[in-house]
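B., you asked whether I could sanity-check this one before it goes into the benchmark set. Here's the sequence:
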Amino acid sequence: MKNVLKLEEAMMFVFSIYLFSLLHFPGWLFAALLLTPDLGALGYLGGNKSGAFFYNIFHHKGVAIAIYLLGIYLQNEKIQLAGIILFGHSSMDRVFGYGLKYVTGFQFTHLGQIGRQANHKPL
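And here's what the prediction gave me:
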């Protein structure tokens, strides 16, 4: 089952590339922006609670889809791009086992514990 879930996330990542291709931006921009949602991890400078909050906002697929749809509604490709990048990045992270964070610490995710002391492997 773990591999099926990873394949599903990989296909969502490919879908984000397709959605990006429908916009009028240079291809290199997707790769250049792909890791920017990880800036949400800066929230951990304020502790685990704020870290989990900001990380999860930047990695929640529902938020990403809402931003993308807002961009469609407003006919604004920059807002659509933001939603696509958030969605694609979250899918890519999930392929590697990084999920939404719990307030107990960065290594505790909805997919399982990550890091050296992980009791079980994510995804």
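One thing to flag: The mean pLDDT is 92. Otherwise nothing jumped out at me.
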